[in-house]
Design a protein that fits this description.
Two copies of one chain form a homodimer. The first copy, chain A, has 453 residues and is α/β, with parallel strands linked by helices. Chain A is 37% helix and 15% strand. The first copy, chain A, is built from 15 helices and 13 strands.
Chain lengths: 453, 453
């Protein structure tokens, strides 16, 4: 069986999907403003066999029908939150293999500034940077930024224009061999190998050179997680890793297959997109004991905070709906992963489930060996490439995984200590450090892939 | 005599004002993409008695009359350049006192995103963050960002609106005592002490909470360096540290006095703004030997690269001007520090001087004791508070300063090992961690200064 890809799902906030769990006695996420918290976590993840840390992010906070409920502030539901990019260099300095995938929105960042930030991170991490491309639907962010809310499909049109310009900047301005750093001849770079970018898109215009010289990966590894039709198309066209949403093997298998079909339709090779699913784990001497541990953790969820959290992400106030209404009948703009996952359920069940689980989908319980076996079966039966591990408490849940589950996974050949020159090559061992020739970014390169690289 | 404030002038590029000096055999700035380069530098600066690292920055590169000359790329004149903010957390993790002042433009960043980035840095550094507030005049950046160039005075109107909103976000949304982190009572923050910001300015609109909880300093220490009338007014109104431009005691004294007069006129206390000037130093067993060392360094300047650099910052092509023309007769939009400093000279002299010195203004030569004495005399005769030390080569110039000049300064009582809870308190030992009540930001606080802090 092939080894899995393993990421840690993180956020620069005090609650990670389980709203209220910041108060658990074992929880240290209230130290999120402390650099030591992150540095220690990065070291632990690398030791535990994780390939990358994924840092979710969004500006804003739960705000519905013109109000933010007091529970949002009281339980720190998505607010306070800090910038995730600022964490990376300190963690990169104490690790060698761990990669860092950071979220940045195509709705609220500027593509030139964003490309320079990611190029800088890819330089400083020596090719261990990833970009989780998101669009922003929360109206409150428009109010914070003084912009007009962008309708769903237009958000993706804007996202495509954003990444098209990003490709030109990251791949099309400096040739791979433009930088010489030849002190003897006093030539830093060859002007003949640096070219102006010209972009006149529907949303963005740019004329000139890219400020950053090429980093090891040039473009950071591209992540995406949209569940809507438009979101899936965008992912199949642009992403290298797609974050799936499913609570069982059947749902995941459907999505893995869907990603394969769409990727091929986009003219990219069948294996050119990796799929990962969210995963939480609790181990004990028996499954019953692990279930008791789960209950004890989830007791810390604050139901009102969880409902506000759902509202923030969907614009839907669960308390105002008929409990017997089918979730599939809800009118949304189609972007909501959180609505999509409950499309077969009624409001009553969806509410109860969301309060209990937040965004957690797969929760595996049992002895370490049982958990490792379940992970193996999931990968086998779905074609999934790996997992985004979501802790209950930090650092405890990571320590538990590193000490108990990882050895069982290694024994089963499911986890390896990857040694690759770049994050992209860790994910795609048969490829090079750059986006492959089958990726749309190749079209903006001046030197065809394979001639100088 | 009171100890000086000492900063290091840095940039996330290969040339630091002397265009071409990247190729000097002792120079390691071509390693600017390597995190170890920065981590080692931060450790060296802290050991050497520096209070802060100042990182200059601008998007873009020299581009005049529609072209970028090949020498710009060949000698790396301002390009390639990487984002400076990404460097901070790694350097903060290996230092305890050193502060980090990062440049961000009010012309091209978004105030909400910018405030969250700086709040995050102030958290991660435990109150060691500073913001060098700049406006961007280079037309090439407008072309890169797809925006319309903003005329000079309007840039400052926009800058004022930008900082007015920043104050509301950083100082007016969360009260100092809003965050409780009370696990026993399960209360993270008190909703009654978090308030929505409402801003409808001429350039920016914002309604809602600020995402970040208060950091130690709340607002990072505010730096500014404008030489124009509008720039000086902006600095006197908003800045806590002003970077002056002058090549002798008289020029500096005039500016120090000007800052004092303007600060008082703005209703702020006389000592509420610190002044620093750029400084380069070369030591040897004699002044003559130090001069020979200076010549040997400046031989590495590439004249064509230096002229392109001047053109980038001013829009003025020195090669096309009558050498006998007075620099004061040049029509510029009034913003250019680089033109202002040559206002008493002719084009011929200005060109020759700029090629040799770039943006270096004070260059002190002699034995370590002679240099320390000259620094003391400058401070004494001008009222200047300190210096921004600009190296010729890295790390050599810093090592030289730390090993030779710093001990002589300490012996003269001019340098102290500052131990303050925050960067602001290192600069203003009689004040607190936050902007004082006399600063305009105080007006947007909900709880008057002094009641809870």
């Amino acid at each position: 069986m092939k080894p899995i890809i393993l990421g840690a799902f993180e956020i620069n906030q005090v609650n990670l999907t389980s709203q209220g769990m910041w108060a658990h006695p074992e929880q240290t996420t209230h130290r999120y403003t402390d650099l030591d918290h992150w540095v220690d976590l990065a070291v632990l993840l690398e030791r535990g066999g994780f390939d990358f840390m994924f840092v979710a992010d969004s500006y804003g906070y739960p705000h519905m029908n013109g109000i933010t409920r007091p529970v949002v502030i009281e339980q720190a539901v998505e607010v306070p939150n800090n910038d995730p990019m600022m964490l990376v260099s300190a963690m990169a300095a104490v690790t060698e293999r761990l990669a860092f995938v950071v979220t940045a929105s195509t709705t609220h960042e500027h593509p030139y500034a964003n490309a320079r930030r990611f190029a800088t991170l890819d330089h400083l991490t020596k090719g261990r940077a990833g970009w989780n491309m998101v669009t922003t639907s929360m109206e409150v962010v428009s109010e914070l930024f003084g912009t007009t809310p962008v309708p769903h499909d237009e958000r993706y049109a804007r996202a495509q224009d954003f990444v098209d310009l990003s490709y030109k900047l990251l791949e099309g301005s400096w040739d791979d061999d433009a930088v010489l750093v030849d002190k003897q001849r006093r030539i830093y770079a060859d002007p003949a190998k640096v070219r102006e970018v010209h972009h006149e898109g529907p949303y963005f215009t740019c004329h000139g050179y890219f400020d950053s010289e090429p980093s090891r990966q040039r473009t950071p590894v591209l992540f995406q997680a949209g569940a809507s039709e438009t979101g899936r198309s965008f992912g199949a066209r642009n992403a290298e890793v797609v974050f799936l949403h499913g609570r069982n093997a059947q749902m995941l298998r459907e999505q893995v297959d869907d990603v394969r079909v769409r990727t091929v339709r986009e003219g990219r090779g069948e294996g050119s997109v990796r799929t990962v699913a969210g995963l939480s784990v609790l181990t004990a001497s028996s499954r019953a004991e692990a279930e008791r541990r789960l209950d004890a953790y989830l007791d810390y969820v604050d139901p009102a905070a969880a409902r506000a959290y759902f509202g923030a992400m969907t614009g839907i106030d669960l308390e105002e709906l008929d409990p017997d209404m089918a979730m599939a009948d809800l009118t949304t703009d189609g972007s909501q992963t959180q609505v999509h996952r409950y499309r077969h359920e009624k409001v009553r069940e969806a509410t109860a489930d969301f309060i209990r689980h937040g965004m957690r989908e797969l929760i595996l319980l049992g002895t370490p060996t049982q958990v490792a076996d379940q992970m193996g079966e999931l990968v086998e039966s779905t074609g999934l490439d790996g997992f985004l591990y979501t802790p209950f408490v930090t650092p405890g849940s990571y320590q538990e995984f590193a000490d108990d589950v990882a050895p069982a996974l290694r024994a089963a050949g499911l986890l390896e200590h990857r040694q690759a020159p770049t994050f992209r090559q860790a994910l795609f061992p048969d490829g090079g450090p750059h986006l492959p020739a089958s990726h749309p970014a190749d079209r903006v390169r001046h030197v065809p892939s394979g001639t100088t690289r």
